[in-house]
Automatic annotation (TrEMBL):
Any one GO biological process: response to stress
GO molecular function, one term: phosphatidylinositol-3-phosphate binding
Organism, scientific name: Electrophorus electricus (Electric eel)
UniProt cross-references to InterPro entries, sorted A to Z: PROPPIN, WD40/YVTN_repeat-like_dom_sf, WD40_repeat_dom_sf, WD40_rpt
GO CC terms, sorted: phagophore assembly site membrane
Name of this chain's protein: WD repeat domain, phosphoinositide interacting 1
Tagged with keyword Membrane: yes
Keyword set, alphabetical order: Autophagy, Lipid-binding, Membrane, Repeat, WD repeat
Pfam families, per database record: PROPPIN
């Protein structure tokens, strides 16, 4: 989950962050700055701990950490074609690789390391950094858009299959073979991400109005969410929660949307007896007579929860995680701030901001900013999660305050440190990691790529990016009898009569 500099590897220097990325389990945040890079621990709400800071790679625009291990991959503006792999706890370089063009993205899991260039992708084994496969002549991908599943048992890799429409290629990075092609959108892709198990893929197009979720490897569409209708936006980040119950999306606007992945269906007699169910059935029946795109809009789900950022126009990256056993939304902005919000998993709505951390500046400046932010009174009107998240005292360094499953604080109880480790393997244990034998740096230049060929691109298809914007005006006229409330008819009869006088007029055909 990362945010690379929007103007690419050759962008000018500027204030704020060059990049920001959360690790695979959202317990750590890596940022690139003009002076180098920093690694932060994000396992607590009230305090942001900088666990490592390096000045070896000024103007870093790609920084990726492997889970909570000591392995970190860095690419800097000074050498955009070279990837450096470090063991940051020992302060040594494990190896470096050079490529034929600027590196646009790097993705990691416990089995594979993927390097994405504009028209080629390189797949390495993370155990020894051996180059396993080179995907040449891939469709032009100037933003380096790609995603690698965190689940190393499948190691699915997703990348654009066409430069003009939103086709997504699913590639098995373990078995080094293509799995399927998902026709996700009519316009080019802007963001893609896998859930933690690699069984679902979320995607958004350059228009930024619709977000879709597909099953993997089948490629079947499961969910469709509408972010908005009034304007096109640049969606910069998509992220599933660890249980795949929620999906968050951030863009260049001031709003972050959180969608809930739940199937809507009949739930027995209780639903059948409600007036809203009658109305819903009537609208569903009426939508079958409308153009496909209009009926699709009526069936799309809207956001379950939203966040209003304090800044707009900033590039940012978001993630959903559990901190102290409560659901949180983390948003790292290119202006050098980290925002932490509470999420109400039952009712959704507007999320409460509980903490703001500064990511840039010296350690003293960041600590001073955090102390000033934490010295004031707690915000009013917080949800149950926000109330439970505010401790009366700062917890010890090796412990976190315990919480019960329903969100209530168990006063005095702490979580043992060994329970904080996820999984049987401790990648942050130097005895177990890194698997790469330290050796002197070497330069490896892979074979040259061939320009002019666009792989999966189908030039016979129209360029939907240049198509006119969708124009759909639906006028709904509802006539209700004056004596509706005093009518002696049954609720079912009244609802059917009410829906029978609804007139849907399509003012202009929609572009499909």
């Amino acid at each position: 989950i990362g945010m690379e500099r929007e103007d690419g590897a050759h962008g000018p220097r500027g204030p704020g962050l060059g990049c920001a990325s959360f690790n695979q389990d959202s317990t750590s945040l890596a940022v690139g700055t003009k002076t180098g890079y920093r690694l932060f621990s994000v396992t607590a709400v009230d305090r942001l701990e900088c666990i490592h800071e390096s000045a070896e790679s000024p103007d870093a625009y790609i920084v990726e950490r492997l889970f909570s291990s000591s392995l970190v991959v860095v690419v800097s503006q000074a050498a955009p074609r070279r990837m450096n792999v470090y063991h940051f706890k020992k302060g040594t370089e494990i190896c470096n690789y050079s490529y034929s063009d600027s590196i646009l993205a790097v993705r990691l899991n416990r089995q594979r390391l993927v390097v994405c260039l504009e028209e080629s992708i390189y797949i390495h084994s993370i155990k020894d950094m051996k180059l396993l496969k080179t995907l040449l002549n891939t469709p032009a991908n100037p933003s380096g858009l790609c995603a690698l599943s965190v689940n190393h048992s499948n190691s699915y890799l997703a990348y654009p299959g066409n430069a003009s429409i939103g086709e997504t290629i699913i590639y098995d990075a373990n078995n080094l073979s293509t799995v399927t092609m998902v026709p996700a959108h009519d316009s080019p892709l802007a963001a893609i991400t896998f859930n933690s198990s690699g069984s679902k893929l979320a995607s958004a197009s350059e228009r930024g109005t619709v977000i879709r979720v597909f099953s993997i490897p089948e490629g079947q569409r499961l969910f469709e969410f509408r972010r908005g209708m009034k304007r096109y936006v640049n969606i910069s980040s998509l992220s599933f929660s660890s249980d795949t119950q929620f999906l968050c999306a951030s863009s260049n606007t001031e709003t972050v949307h959180i969608f809930k992945l739940e199937q809507h269906g009949p739930s027995g007699e209780e639903e059948a007896s409600t007036w809203s169910s009658y109305v819903g059935k009537m609208f569903t029946a009426a939508s079958s007579y409308l153009p496909a795109q209009v009926s699709g809009m009526m069936s799309q789900d809207r956001a379950f929860a939203t966040v209003r950022l304090q800044t707009t126009g900033q590039r940012n990256v978001c993630t959903l995680t559990m901190i102290q056993k409560l659901p949180r939304l983390l948003v790292a902005s290119s202006n050098g701030q980290l925002f932490i919000y509470n999420i109400d998993p039952q009712d959704g709505g507007e999320c409460a901001l509980v903490q703001t951390h500064r990511l840039s500046g010296s350690n003293e400046e960041r600590e001073g900013t955090e102390e000033a932010a934490g010295s004031g009174p707690p915000p009013s009107g917080l949800s149950y999660a926000a109330t439970a998240a505010i401790p009366t005292c700062r917890p010890l360094a090796a412990t976190l305050t315990g919480f019960s499953e329903d969100g209530g604080a168990r006063k005095g109880e702490v979580i043992p440190e060994h329970e904080l480790a996820a999984g049987p393997v401790r990648l942050d244990d130097e005895a177990e990691f890194p698997p790469v034998t330290h050796r002197p740096s070497r330069r490896v230049v892979p074979g040259p790529t061939h320009s002019g060929c666009h792989g999966y691109a189908d030039h016979s298809r129209p360029d939907h990016a240049s198509a006119p914007q969708n124009v759909c005006n639906i006028k709904i006229v509802v006539t209700v009898r004056e004596n509706f409330h005093s009518d002696s008819r049954s609720p079912r009869e009244m609802i059917f009569d009410l829906c029978s006088v609804i007139t849907l007029t399509v003012a202009q055909s929609c572009y499909t």
